[in-house]
Amino acid sequence: MNIKVKFFALYREVAGHPEEILDLRVGSSVGDLLGLLREKYPKLGSLSDNIIVSVNKKYAREEVALKEGDEVALLPPVSGG
Q1: E-state strands within the chain
Q2: Which CATH superfamily is domain 2-75 in?
Q3: Exposure winner among 4, 26, 41, 65, fewest CB in 10 A?
Q4: Closest to 34 (Cα-Cα) out of 13, 8, 61
C-alpha cells in the first residue's frame, strides 16, 4: 500500500526532501513506518525519540494502523516559552 510521508523542519533536512511515497505491506502501523524510516535515514534514529506523528492531520501513536493513501506527517516537538 502507498503511504505519503511529509517531513517538516529538521526531519526534512535529514531526509533531503519534503515528502515521499513509501510502499508498505498491508497491516503496517505507524511504528512500522518509523522503523523503516530509521533504517532508510539513520540520522533520523537519534531524533526520533521526540517525533510527533500525524496521520491524515490527526495525531497518532505508533500502534495506529495505516491504510492505502494515508498521509503521514513527521513533526518536530513543539517548544517555546
Answers
A1: 2-7, 19-23, 52-55, 58-59, 71-75
A2: Beta-grasp domain (3.10.20.30)
A3: 26
A4: 61
**Over the stretch 12-69, which tens digit does the pLDDT of each residue have?**
999 999 999 999 999 999 999 999 999 999 988 776 678 899 999 999 999 999 999 9
- Tell me how far the alpha carbon of residue 22 is from its chain's centroid: 10
Q: Give residue 41's pLDDT.
A: 93
> What are the grid coordinates assigned to 79, written together?
517548544
pLDDT at 79 over 70: no
Q: CA dihedral defined by 50, 70, 15, 53, rounded to 10 degrees?
A: -10
Nearest to 77 by CA among 61, 56, 53, 41: 53
**pTM to 2 decimal places:** 0.90
